[in-house]
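W.,

You were right to be curious about this one. When I first looked at the sequence I had no strong expectations either way, so I just let the prediction run and decided to look at it fresh. Below is the sequence, 76 residues in total, followed by the output.
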Amino acid sequence: MEKTKISWSPPNPGELKFNIDGAVNESFGEAEIGGCLRNGSAKMLLAFSKSVGRVDPTTVEILSLLEAIKLYCKSR
Protein backbone atom coordinates (compact mmCIF):
# COMPACT_ATOMS: atom_id res chain seq x y z
CA MET A 1 0.00 0.00 0.00
CA GLU A 2 1.41 3.36 -1.02
CA LYS A 3 1.41 6.13 1.57
CA THR A 4 0.13 9.56 0.62
CA LYS A 5 1.62 12.61 2.27
CA ILE A 6 -1.02 15.07 3.40
CA SER A 7 -0.07 18.54 4.53
CA TRP A 8 -1.86 21.70 5.53
CA SER A 9 -1.05 25.00 3.86
CA PRO A 10 -1.98 28.36 5.37
CA PRO A 11 -4.16 30.85 3.50
CA ASN A 12 -2.63 33.79 1.69
CA PRO A 13 -1.71 36.83 3.82
CA GLY A 14 -4.84 38.77 4.76
CA GLU A 15 -7.10 35.75 4.19
CA LEU A 16 -8.62 33.19 6.57
CA LYS A 17 -9.04 29.43 6.26
CA PHE A 18 -11.63 27.32 8.06
CA ASN A 19 -10.92 23.57 8.13
CA ILE A 20 -13.95 21.51 9.15
CA ASP A 21 -14.88 17.86 9.42
CA GLY A 22 -17.65 15.60 10.58
CA ALA A 23 -17.59 11.94 11.52
CA VAL A 24 -20.18 9.27 12.24
CA ASN A 25 -19.47 6.27 14.44
CA GLU A 26 -21.31 3.61 12.44
CA SER A 27 -21.41 1.20 15.38
CA PHE A 28 -23.36 3.63 17.56
CA GLY A 29 -24.70 6.12 14.99
CA GLU A 30 -23.42 9.07 17.01
CA ALA A 31 -21.86 11.95 15.05
CA GLU A 32 -19.32 14.64 15.94
CA ILE A 33 -18.23 17.82 14.19
CA GLY A 34 -15.19 20.03 14.55
CA GLY A 35 -13.19 22.74 12.90
CA CYS A 36 -10.63 25.50 13.30
CA LEU A 37 -10.14 28.92 11.73
CA ARG A 38 -6.60 30.14 11.06
CA ASN A 39 -5.08 33.25 9.56
CA GLY A 40 -2.21 33.57 7.06
CA SER A 41 0.32 33.19 9.90
CA ALA A 42 -1.33 29.86 10.87
CA LYS A 43 -2.54 31.38 14.16
CA MET A 44 -5.70 29.63 15.38
CA LEU A 45 -8.49 32.18 15.78
CA LEU A 46 -11.48 29.91 16.50
CA ALA A 47 -12.06 26.22 17.11
CA PHE A 48 -15.03 24.00 17.86
CA SER A 49 -15.86 20.37 18.55
CA LYS A 50 -19.25 18.98 19.53
CA SER A 51 -21.57 16.01 19.36
CA VAL A 52 -24.56 16.36 17.03
CA GLY A 53 -26.44 13.16 17.87
CA ARG A 54 -27.56 10.52 15.38
CA VAL A 55 -27.28 11.77 11.80
CA ASP A 56 -26.11 10.38 8.48
CA PRO A 57 -22.65 11.21 7.00
CA THR A 58 -23.92 13.85 4.56
CA THR A 59 -25.85 15.67 7.28
CA VAL A 60 -22.89 15.66 9.66
CA GLU A 61 -20.71 17.37 7.02
CA ILE A 62 -23.40 20.01 6.43
CA LEU A 63 -23.74 20.57 10.18
CA SER A 64 -19.99 21.16 10.49
CA LEU A 65 -20.16 23.79 7.74
CA LEU A 66 -23.17 25.51 9.34
CA GLU A 67 -21.45 25.58 12.75
CA ALA A 68 -18.33 27.14 11.21
CA ILE A 69 -20.38 29.84 9.49
CA LYS A 70 -22.35 30.55 12.69
CA LEU A 71 -19.20 30.87 14.83
CA TYR A 72 -17.46 33.08 12.27
CA CYS A 73 -20.45 35.42 12.03
CA LYS A 74 -20.71 35.67 15.83
CA SER A 75 -17.01 36.54 16.08
CA ARG A 76 -17.21 39.55 13.76
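Here's what jumped out at me. The longest strand covers residues 44-54. And, maybe more interesting for your project: The CA atoms of residues 24 and 31 lie 4 Å apart.

Coffee later to discuss?

I.
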